[in-house]
Design a protein that fits this description.
CATH superfamily of the largest domain: Fructose-1,6-Bisphosphatase, subunit A, domain 1
CATH architecture of the largest domain: 2-Layer Sandwich
Largest sheet: 8 strands, mixed
Bound molecules: 2,5-anhydro-1,6-di-O-phosphono-D-mannitol, magnesium ion
Number of domains: 2
Helix content: 25-40%
Strand order of the largest sheet: 4-3-5-6-7-8-9-10
Shape: globular
Radius of gyration: 22 Å
Strand content: 15-25%
């Protein structure tokens, strides 16, 4: 190419940087408007979460080609569930990633009975990472989307028995939360209490790049996401809700078997995700500390709501670290609609009780 054919230097740089490639670490620092120690900590923590996400995405992208990605390990976890190979792998990835961080003294996940301590980090590491390493792991074997959910809390107290007693606090204590969605692209969505931000992994750069800043959930949306196969086990209020959406125009059912994917859709399109208590599991299936509370924190930051049906989800204090809660989460108007059926049924029950001789 001769010099007449080539673009001026300035122009070719513009072309190369066709968007502002804002990385996670830079975004956190800019967002906190600080380069102080707390901001540096948060930036480093988010970078580590991104690294864990990249390692998990890499393994998932080869599922079926490499050993240790599909199927079960043969173990049963503390939740009484069969452990999948990817559950095990992803749990180990988070541990290995945060061992080197210096910042996290303790990790707790639904795959481990007790918190995992990293004693060498504890003198300086004031943070606890709570996480669901692979959410919706039954989807892995059929090549559908899965996610990882994370939450960061500041450690309070000494936890002498290393059981995580001090983690038995409400969800307002979280300082950051989010998820990584492994779908057609790998997406990281996070909040540090200042809005919700969406990053997409650019595989050619190996970096999460900012895609959407300050995502807001629609006030109302068409999606309702609930496992209707459990209808026979539900309370009447949820049956009322389901009959309502069946009989009114404007609703559409979506349920992928992976909460992260279903909630991601709702964040963009609006609607509600419900995992209620059932006859078999009166508190539902989802774990408060690793699933419901982090997502509730995130959705509230996006202008949505999360409830157990009885109280705001973020107000719930668990009685043990693996506690479960019913979850109603999504657009404010759709969460309120579900709550209105609960209130109606509660009122009816109270009236019937008052009329009893
Ligand atoms: P997991 O984290 O053990 O995979 O379980 C959580 C998942 C959620 O992602 C999903 O919404 C739910 O379990 C599906 O459960 P069900 O098959 O009972 O509808
Ligand atoms: Mg899960």
């Amino acid at each position: 190419m001769n010099s007449a054919d080539s673009a001026p230097l300035e122009l070719s740089y513009d072309f190369a940087l066709d968007r502002d490639c804002k990385t996670l670490s830079r975004h956190v620092l800019e967002h906190l408007q600080s380069f102080g120690p707390e901001a540096q900590d948060m930036s480093a923590l988010m970078t580590r979460i991104g690294l864990a996400g990249k390692l998990i995405a890499r393994r998932l992208s080869k599922a079926g080609l490499v050993a240790g990605a599909l199927g079960f390990t043969g173990e049963i976890n503390v939740q009484g569930e069969a452990v999948k190979q990817m559950d095990f792998y992803a749990n180990e990835v988070f541990i290995a990633t945060f061992k080197q961080s210096g910042l996290v003294c303790r990790l707790a996940s639904e795959e481990m009975e007790k918190p995992y301590y990293i004693p060498e980090n504890c003198p300086i590491g004031r943070y606890t990472l709570l996480y669901d390493p692979i959410d919706g792991s039954s989807n892995v074997d059929v090549n559908l989307n899965v996610g990882s959910i994370f939450s960061i809390r500041q450690q309070v107290g000494n936890d002498p028995d290393q059981t995580g007693e001090d983690l038995l606090q409400n969800g307002h204590q979280q300082v950051a939360a989010g998820y990584i969605l492994y779908g057609p692209s790998t997406v990281l969505v996070y909040s540090i209490g200042r809005g919700v931000h969406v990053f997409i992994l650019d595989p050619s750069l190996g970096e999460f790049i900012l895609a959407i800043e300050n995502l807001k959930i629609p006030q109302h949306g068409p999606v309702y996401s609930v496992n209707e196969g459990n209808f026979w086990q539900w309370e009447e209020a949820l049956r009322d809700f389901t009959r309502y959406v069946h009989r009114h125009e404007g609703y559409t059912a979506r349920y992928s078997g992976a909460l992260v994917g279903d909630l991601h859709r709702i964040l963009f399109q609006g609607g509600v995700f419900i995992y209620p208590g059932t006859i078999k599991n009166p508190n539902g299936k989802l774990r408060l500390l690793y699933e419901s509370a982090p997502l509730a924190y995130l959705v509230e930051q996006a202008g949505g709501r999360a409830s157990t049906g009885q109280r705001p989800l973020l107000d719930v204090v668990p009685d043990h670290i693996h506690a479960r809660t019913p979850l109603i989460i999504g657009s404010p108007e759709d969460v309120a609609l579900m709550e209105s059926f609960i209130e109606d049924r509660t009122r009816q029950a109270e009236e019937e009780f008052a009329l009893k001789p």
